[in-house]
Amino acid sequence: MPALNHTASDCPTFSFIRIPGLEAAYIWISIPFCLLYLMAIAGNSLLLILVRADQNLHEPQFYFLAMLALTDLGLSLTTMPSVMAIFWFDVHRIGLDACLTQMFFIHTLSSVESGVLVAMALDRLVAICAPLNYTRILTHSSVVCLSVAALIRGVTLLIPLPLFLKNFPFCGANILSHSYCYYPDMLNLACGDVTFSSVYGLVFVLCTFAVDAVFILVSYMKILGTIMKLGTQERNWKSLQTCACHLCTVFVFYLPLISLAVLHRFAQDTSPILYTTMSNTYLLMTPVLNPLVYSLKSRQIQAALRKRFWVQRVIAGE
Question: For 250, how many CA atoms within 13 A lie in the half-sphere containing its CB?
Fold first, then answer.
């Protein structure tokens, strides 16, 4: 993880947003953030362990879940140093290269997560609309291909962004609007003509999040149409239950994403406390809630948890 800097250098440095007037309470404010990061790291690590260790979870939908947990773990580890350094050590400055590195990982991992959600929607689509062809369509190789495609798309589309910013001069106070480096935020601080970079950023959003959201919406329209043809209300309910975890995950991912976009565009003059809380919620909500959603809603994950903790109790008893 890139190091944070106190001192100025030949390269421009940036200042993370702080909460004016509450500096004395930073230690107390850090407690809920610290707990949320610990929950995110522990929860997603546990999901990875369960999927790897339990043979009953060696299915496409849980492989995608492991990929989702891995991206959430990466997001948490990417932002935790800068966020916690502000509260614990009052370190609020970061160099250009470190900031660009953090920005690259944040946006790449967010793009990968969006792609994984599309793959999970495809999994539910095939499972409900073509159950007899499920094992033929979603093989281990197709799961790997979909996961790698999501990663390649994110990396390929994101590589130009730090290169654009690297070539811009930065002038002024260079105060970021968040506790982490965010592309639109950095672009607003750049001097010179940023039209092309701004348009490319919009193209990136349209080619990833917008396209993915449309595919997920169309998939669930198709799923809903198939479920309505099943006949009995009980069968309809059971079919919808298999999609519950994924639907919750989609809402958990897109709601903070849309909220941050609206916040960044229209709410610059709001309370600093509200602004900081909402901007950090964008990157904390998904990693924290995804493990909870699957632990509470997925019977297979619940069974794997009971099995693992039962085995540990038996070993401890011996």
Answer: 22
- Count Cβ atoms within 10 A of the Cβ of residue 197 and give its class: 0-12 exposed, 13-18 middle, 19 or more buried: buried
Count of other CB atoms within 10 angstroms of residue 150: 24
Specify whether the CB–CB gap between 96 and 164 falls below 8 A. no
The pLDDT, as a whole number, for residue 24 is 76
**Entry pTM:** 0.89
The answer for 228, left when phi > 0, alpha when psi is -120 to 50, beta otherwise, is alpha
Residues whose CB is less than 8 angstroms from the CB of residue 32 and which lie 6 or more positions away in sequence, other chains included: none
Nearest-Å Rg of the Cα atoms of the chain is 21
Average pLDDT over all residues of the chain: 85
Contacts of 8 (CB under 8 A, 6+ apart): none
Stated as kind and residue range, the H or E segment containing 88 is helix 60-89
Residue 266, pLDDT score: 66
Pair 17, 272: CB distance under 8 Å = yes
Q: Which amino acid is at 191?
A: C
* Backbone CA torsion sign across 158, 211, 213, 195: positive
At residue 300, the 3 state secondary structure works out as: helix
| Helix (H) or strand (E) segment spanning residue 229 | none
The residues near 116 (Cβ < 8 Å, ≥ 6 apart) are 64, 67, 68, 71, 147, 150
Residue written as token pair 């546990």: 46
Joined together, the tokens standing for residue 68 give 């989702």
More confident residue, 207 or 90: 207
Which residues lie closer than 8 Å to 19 by C-beta, 6 or more apart?
26, 29, 272, 273, 276
